[in-house]
Specification:
The complex is a heterodimer of chains A (232) and B (405). With 232 residues, chain A is mainly α. Helix content of chain A is 77%, strand content 0%. Chain A has one domain: MetI-like (MetI-like fold, Orthogonal Bundle). In chain A, α2 packs across α8, α4 crosses α5 and α8 runs antiparallel to α11. Chain B contains twelve helices and 20 strands. The chains are: A mainly alpha (232), B alpha+beta (405).
Chain lengths: 232, 405
């Protein structure tokens, strides 16, 4: 019990004294997961919208694959990204294994199916004739897609929350492709795992609290936007 | 007053030719109307339109045209092809075959012709509003056309006023009632000054009072803006009130098209007759004929009608309920009605301003009577009355002999 109380005290000490290492880890976590979320939004919204608006042979299979991808285990993603980025791997020439870029790549792979799946469902849930109505208003195809995405913006915010929430808290892929290098590729989750392994529970608890606060604040801001937009 | 005259009054009062250049904007007709001689005779013309879905033909229209300034009503049962025709004409559905032209210009059927789609507008049964304010919804088409914010700010308020939704300008579209939402949808369509508007049962999802008010406003606006319109409806009264011409559709085909009065009074076949409100359609065979009047035997009686038909010919005798007069005197004094049948009232159904009376005269006959007549004649179910109608009120449709099997 003392261990926990001491851990929490230490945590708040590290947080309020703005410990340089903890701050660095926190900022890197935000930067890596934020960038990965942006990449996944760009790809996920584009692919999700395209699949939602088109009819082609094998579409059902593609939708099933996207839905399966929403539950992709991070360690499996970490394994395959590591293999791809390995020196002799297909993308080995990029020489980005054990860098923050590799973590961004892995996290983007984890978040993209989540964003794609939610986008697909959001666009499909819009009224069937809305597409035709937009075209009847004189819209070009690009304008129509933009207006549909805009119309589905509330569920898409949920996609952002789900995507960011999924990757800020994942550890498997980050440790496998980032290497948890101190001051370079160490993020909140990998640092927590390491400190727990070393028995430094106070630091681990501090990092966990920061991680939870980070996830809470980002989601609180997005929820605020979502609720403000919602009709009352 | 015989309630049948309700429909006739509508026919008398409605405009016959709306005229104008179809631009529909600004609202001063004198400012936009082209001299009649410079108007094209046909605004929209379609040929050999064929739409197939899942191997079945859902639309097959050899020829179809819309005249400038008219309101053409498409009526028919569900699945008749009304919506498919509207979507095809609005370039929102690619036909399997066929072509159409607008103002003499060939249109790229399907969804490719953005230029054409910016000259038309379409209103669906559901308002399909964006999750935005009423103002932003009405402005949507203008924004799509790249109109600047200032100009939008000048144009939109006039249309909000016109459709009676100026007080809702800043309200979220999600908070509107059904009528308000459909008004917003109509304003959004008209603000772009469409040369033709396609309306797919725009009033059918509304409750009767809201519907009545909106139809009244729509009628006024479409007259003021001189907008050409093609509207689908399954409500005959709505078509009567608004349309210049009427096309009756069934099974993906246009069964009859023509001026409203012509379709209503001279239906081409039994289907059209039943659909346009001819409630009594009696199959019969001509017994004798002289001086342009013939007598046909129908099940349970004989009917006199006007026409040069030969004895033995098979016919359908169509009688509109508003043309049937009921009386308690035998025979009705001082009348030119050549058909009079004693009958028993089987059922009286109130229909708002008038009542539908179903009689058994040996055959089923439907009459419309006002509430006042109902009271004056003390009409009630089971009462014996005399139903009469003129020979000229019987619309006769010749029938083919059934095929020998």
């Amino acid at each position: 019990m003392n261990l926990i109380i001491e851990g929490i005290q230490k945590a708040f000490f590290l947080i309020f004294t703005l410990d340089a290492e903890v701050l660095g880890i926190t900022l890197l976590s935000l930067q890596v997961s934020g960038t990965a979320t942006l990449i996944s939004l760009f790809i996920g919204i584009s692919v999700g919208t395209a699949v939602a608006l088109s009819r082609f042979p094998g579409r059902q299979l593609v939708v099933s694959l996207i839905n399966t991808g929403m539950g992709l285990p991070p360690v499996v993603v970490g394994l395959f990204v590591a293999i791809f980025l390995w020196r002799n791997g297909p993308l080995g020439f990029l020489e980005i294994l054990y860098t923050p870029t590799a973590i961004i790549l892995a996290q983007a792979v984890i978040a993209t199916p989540i964003v794609t799946g939610i986008t697909l469902a959001s666009i499909q849930n819009l009224p069937v004739n809305l597409r035709l109505q937009i075209l009847a208003l004189g819209a070009t195809r690009v304008q129509m897609v933009w207006l549909l995405v805009k119309e589905a913006r509330l569920p898409l915010l949920a996609a952002v929350m789900a995507g960011f929430g999924g990757i800020i808290s994942e550890v498997g892929a980050s440790i496998m492709v980032g290497g948890n290098i101190r001051g370079y590729s160490r993020v909140l989750t990998t640092a927590t795992v390491m400190e727990t392994g070393r028995g430094n529970f106070d630091v681990a608890i501090a990092l966990s609290i920061i991680l939870m606060l980070l996830a809470f604040f980002v989601n609180a801001i997005l929820t605020q936007i979502q609720q403000r937009e919602r009709p009352r | 007053m015989n309630p049948g005259t309700h429909a006739e009054a509508l026919l008398r009062n409605k405009r016959i030719v709306r005229g104008g250049d179809g631009s529909g904007y600004p609202l001063d007709p004198a400012a936009v109307a082209l001299p009649p001689e410079s108007r094209p005779e046909i605004l929209l013309q379609a040929e050999n339109l064929l739409v197939r879905r899942g191997g079945a033909t859902v639309l097959d229209i050899p020829a179809f045209d819309v005249h400038p300034g008219e309101l053409l009503a498409l009526i028919g049962p569900n699945g008749a092809g009304k919506s498919t025709l509207l979507l095809t004409l609005a370039c929102l559905l690619k036909p399997s075959r066929g072509r159409f032209s607008f103002n003499g210009r060939e249109i790229d059927a399907g969804r490719g012709d953005v230029e054409y789609r910016r000259r038309i507008a379409m209103v669906f049964q559901e308002p399909l509003l964006f999750d935005a304010t009423v103002f932003d919804n009405v402005a949507a088409g203008l924004k799509i056309r790249g109109m600047g914010r200032e100009e939008i700010g000048r144009v939109v308020p006039g249309y909000l006023e016109l459709f009676g939704i100026a007080h809702l300008t800043k309200r979220s579209a999600r908070k509107l009632s059904g009528g308000e939402a459909q008004r917003t949808s109509l304003a959004r369509a008209f603000v772009t000054k469409p040369e033709i508007v396609f309306l797919d049962e725009p009033f059918s999802a509304l409750d009767p009072p809201t519907r009545e008010a909106l139809i009244g406003d729509f009628e006024r606006i479409i007259r003021e803006t001189h907008t050409t319109a093609v509207a689908s409806t399954h409500d005959q009264t709505e078509a009567l009130r608004l349309a210049d011409r009427m096309a009756v559709m069934n099974g993906g085909k246009i069964v009859q098209i023509g001026p409203v009065a012509e379709v209503i009074n001279r239906p081409a076949d039994g289907f059209v007759a039943s659909f346009v409100g001819v409630e009594t359609v009696l199959p019969g065979r001509v017994l004798r004929s002289s001086d342009g009047v013939f007598t046909a035997a129908v099940e349970g009686g004989e009917i006199q009608a006007v026409g040069h038909l030969r004895p033995g010919e098979r016919v359908l005798c169509c009688i509109r309920p508003e043309h049937v007069t009921l009386s308690t005197n035998i025979p009705p004094p001082g009348t030119s009605a050549r058909n009079a049948f004693p009958g028993t009232i089987r059922k009286i159904t109130p229909l708002g301003l008038f009542n539908r009376v179903l009689l058994n005269c040996g055959f089923d006959l439907v009459a419309y009577v006002t509430r006042q007549s109902l009271e004056t004649l003390s009409l009630e179910e089971g009462k014996r009355v005399i139903a009469s109608f003129k020979a000229t009120a019987v619309h006769v449709i010749p029938r083919q002999e059934p095929r020998q099997t």
